[in-house]
Design goal:
alpha/beta; six-stranded parallel β-sheet
């Protein structure tokens, strides 16, 4: 019978031999009484260790002692030249600090962060000199997520390597005033430095999430036979304060479940967040250790430097370990800023055994007892163990001091906001680093530039030669972004023919049209295997369960059970070679997968085509930050906002009713949004996305780094065949005319996007038959693209005052039309109002403003006044305002249709597509 465990203790198990149990308890009581609690604790830990060796199922401890995980006797031989590497660290530390300080000289003051890199320099340099494989290494190199606030140190190293020059360092955070591209961005931004940075990391919390899914996607590529990624490792550098972001820890179980031993997190535990301690009354390293151990990670703590080893070796009573275990982080921060006598009295002075341990040490020696994250050998041992560990991801918890080596900043609460160093501060910093810079060198630099000088020992110096040799041995400089993907042969006209035929017999939702085309793409011999379908537990909702038996759901462990629906035609099937990424209920995880897949052309030299389909409400609203990071990473792919609109899924109520995602999409410059009404429009839009992102042209030989966001609907509508001579340019630019009226009477222009097009089609019929008004109908496939085109034209005109002005595409399309223009969509008015400035004549807009609710589609559309009858009344009102018809006509229509009363449509049935 299975054990029942509560907090690691047996609570309901029968004692089959009470006498034996009592003998053990008595023995333990004697041990405590005669040898003390510390000795008893040690024996208990040894018993637990032995139990695991004997494969006895004892629950794991949630945390271990506040000491290094790897004892000195198990540390590997350090293969580097420690003195040379110490000198290199000193050069980088200096240049990183000077870069930020000079960026904040009087009259410039553009900000920056000095302290973060100073605390993590040893962590990075161990990686750069011994572990991080570059793009020229076998397999394509490692993927390294560098902590955003540590960017000055990475720039400083690149300067020593000759990748950046002194002028660029002086222009830190000055990206345009000296000429575009001649300065350096504040943080890792691939879009701003596309040959340097590979991963954007400064949006706190996303590094952890994205690195996990990157490591998982590496395995996906390998398991599917697209690329062997076994020689690639994912490294992610994070801060202990950053771990408070829910996204940071939100996916750690995924890494453990899928045994991602190709992933190592290095958490810089300097115990400080922006305003003060991360957890002053607690111990963040212990807290994180418990989190990661509980999730199934391999945890390596690097708490103390080598100078502590001798003290710990003499800790026969465990009194020092106990003191370490019970001292809160707030106290350790205080010790990092105090003198030796204070530390002697407050840390070692409470117990005579502790005081005796350090009686031979001077106050200065006590001050210099280091934290483990600054000890090269301790960090190397941790990195080495992490890369050799099998079956689990590894997290290294390295204890450091924020602002380490800079006396003016070290360990202070305000360190994160301190951005300037005085000449005196810099002189002390120089002395601590033993740099060959005289006082006169510093003073002269301040006289000439207002800032301290950068330091370079010369390209032929032993230190520079050493660092270049190490990088050459590891596959070249990092970070570095390279595009090596071969151009794809894209499918031709045949694959789009079916959608263009329409469907005269049955109404079809645009979601089904998009999914049908996706299925056909997946059958293509050239691109089929490169498509990555992604969904957050909604494949069935979007009619994609038919893909389960053939494409299968990706699971690195395969399917180790018989599915409950195994005898059905559309049974659920998992496979290590599965193509479909099923993310569970995690839009954040799905976005991380889309980002990893969409940037594979640069990270792996392999074009992959993510097709992430989701409830549109839970895209940009929920994961807009991730989409922004995806754009920064120059990733590509399709985001499909399904069940779009405020009234198509209205039975689900307020939280599922999307009336604004196009507006949110418009805020991202890389996102191209379309809201197609017809299957043939879907075909043209998706083909355009494929060709723009994955095709090769003279202008963009490697394709465009954009993201196609397509909103589609669950409501079945009539799907006409593509008209002969259809305006393809109009479809792709954002607007095309669908029908032209040929009767007598006043004329109007009706515009609609997506699911709203049937409303204006019906409105045109009512207007013609009941009111003698003739309507041209237009499908607006993209309000966003029309607005961007118009803004672009005005921007060009502003910068070319002596040339013929450009005009907006929408203005040209509507230049010669007759009558007022009435626009409607299933979104809030602000969406079609984007183009108001460039629509000639009277422009009226209807939209679904406000919160959604649960009811039928007819009721919701009447409530928001966006249905056909509401379009009719709005059109008649526009004609009356122009004096074309009498106002009594508007009053009559209003009374007839009761557009202000949802009960007027209470008996109206809705068909197809669950609401």
């Amino acid at each position: 019978m299975a054990s029942v465990i509560h907090e690691g203790l047996p609570t309901q198990l029968p004692d089959i031999d009470p006498d034996e149990t009592n003998d053990w308890i008595d023995s333990f009581d004697s041990l405590v009484g005669e040898r003390g609690r510390e000795r008893a604790r040690y024996v208990m830990l040894r018993l637990l260790e032995r139990a695991r060796e004997m494969q006895v199922g004892v629950p794991a401890l949630r945390s271990t002692d506040y000491i290094n995980t790897i004892p000195p006797e198990r540390e590997p031989w350090f293969p580097g030249d420690e003195e040379a590497e110490r000198r290199i660290r000193a050069f980088i530390r200096w240049n990183a600090a000077v870069m930020v300080s000079s960026a904040n000289r009087k009259g410039l003051e553009v900000g920056g962060h000095i302290a973060t890199y100073q605390s993590s320099a040893s962590l990075y340099e161990v990686g750069f000199n011994h572990f991080f494989r570059g793009k020229d290494a076998p397999g394509g190199g490692d993927q390294i997520y560098i902590q955003g606030h540590g960017s000055p140190g990475i720039y400083a190293r690149a300067f020593l390597e000759g990748r950046l020059n002194e002028e660029q360092l002086y222009r830190f955070r000055q990206e345009v005033q000296h000429g575009v591209g001649r300065g350096l961005p504040s943080y890792p931004h691939p879009r701003l430095m596309p040959e340097f940075w590979e991963f954007p990391t400064v949006s706190m919390g996303l590094t952890g999430l994205n690195s996990i899914y990157q490591a998982r996607f590496n395995r996906y590529l390998s398991n599917r036979g697209i690329k062997d990624t076994n020689d690639q490792h994912v490294w992610a550098f994070l801060g202990d304060g950053e771990m408070a972001e829910p996204e940071s820890l939100g996916a750690i179980r995924i890494a453990a479940r899928e045994e991602l031993d190709n992933l190592t997190w290095v958490i810089n535990c300097n115990l400080q967040q922006l305003d003060g301690p991360v957890t002053g009354n607690g111990k963040i390293i212990q807290e994180l250790e418990a989190n990661f151990r509980g999730a199934g990670w391999n945890v390596i703590k690097v708490v103390w430097g080598r100078e502590w080893d001798t003290l710990l070796a003499h800790d026969v009573d465990g009194v020092l370990v106990n003191k370490m275990n019970t001292t809160p982080d707030g106290a350790f921060q205080t010790y990092s800023t105090e003198k030796g006598d204070y530390i002697r009295e407050n840390f070692f002075g409470g117990d005579p055994r502790l005081r005796k341990m350090v009686e031979h040490m001077s106050d200065q020696q006590i001050v210099k007892l280091p934290r483990g994250g600054h000890d090269y050998r301790k960090v190397y041992a941790a990195f080495d163990a992490a890369t050799k560990h099998v079956g689990q991801p590894t997290v290294i918890l390295a204890k450091t001091i924020k602002g380490w080596t800079i006396d003016a900043l070290e360990g202070k609460n305000a360190t994160h906001q301190m951005k300037k160093l005085t000449q005196d501060d810099l002189k002390k910093f120089r002395d601590r680093l033993y740099l060959p810079l005289s006082d006169r060198d510093l003073e002269r630099a301040y006289e000439e530039t207002g800032a301290a000088p950068f330091f370079h020992p010369g390209k032929d110096s032993p230190e520079i030669q050493y660092m270049l040799e190490r990088r050459a041995a590891l596959g070249g400089s990092v970070p570095r972004r390279v595009v090596r993907a071969k151009a794809l042969k894209l499918p031709g006209d045949k694959v789009y023919a079916e959608l263009k035929q329409g469907n005269a017999k049955n109404k079809v939702a645009t979601t089904m049209a998009a999914v049908r085309l996706l299925r056909d793409w997946m059958k293509d011999p050239e691109i089929g295997q490169r498509i990555v379908p992604i969904a957050p537990d909604e494949y069935r909702t979007f009619g994609m369960d038919s893909m389960f038996p053939s494409a299968k759901v990706y699971n690195p462990s395969g399917q180790q059970y018989e599915s409950v629906d195994r005898n059905m035609l559309l049974s659920y099937k998992e496979s290590a070679q599965g193509q479909m990424l099923h993310e569970g209920i995690s839009e954040a995880g799905a976005m991380a997968s889309a980002t990893a897949a969409g940037s594979a052309y640069s990270t792996h030299g392999e074009h992959m085509i993510p097709f992430y389909i989701f409830y549109s409400m839970f895209g940009f609203q929920r994961t807009g930050d991730s989409i922004w990071a995806m754009a920064d990473q120059l990733a590509r792919g399709f985001l499909i906002g399904a069940t779009a609109g405020r009234t198509t899924l209205t039975g689900e109520g307020l939280q599922h009713a999307d009336g604004h995602s196009p507006l949110l999409a418009a805020t991202n410059p890389a996102v191209v949004h379309y809201d197609p009404a017809f299957a043939y429009e879907v075909a043209h839009v998706m083909r355009s996305g494929l060709e723009r992102m994955y095709g090769s042209t003279e202008a963009d030989p490697d394709g465009e780094s954009v993201i196609f966001y397509i909103t589609v609907y669950n409501e079945p509508v009539e799907q006409p065949a593509e008209p002969e001579g259809v305006d393809v340019e109009g479809i792709l630019k954002g607007i095309h005319r669908v029908s032209t009226a040929d009767g007598e009477g006043p004329r109007v222009q009706l515009l609609a996007s997506g699911v709203a097009f049937p409303w204006i089609k019906e409105a045109a019929r009512i207007l013609a038959e009941d009111w003698g008004v003739q309507s041209d109908t237009w499908s607006v496939t993209s309000w966003n693209e029309l607005a961007r085109d118009a803004v672009s034209a005005e921007h060009w005109n502003l910068n070319h005052p002596g040339e013929n002005p450009r005009t907006a595409y929408v203005a040209d399309k509507l230049a010669d039309v007759e009558g007022p223009v009435v626009a409607v969509s299933d979104y809030m008015r602000a969406v079609p109002l984007q183009i108001a400035r460039w629509v000639p004549g009277d422009y009226r807009v209807l939209g679904a403003d406000g919160f959604g609710f649960a009811d039928t589609r007819p009721a919701a559309r009447r409530f928001f006044q966006i249905d056909a009858e509401s379009v009719v009344v709005q059109t008649l009102q526009a004609l009356a305002d122009a004096g074309t018809i009498g106002r009594d006509q508007v009053e009559k229509a209003f009374a007839t249709y009761r557009i202000d009363d949802p009960t007027a449509v209470a008996g109206r049935k809705q068909e197809g597509g669950d609401a």
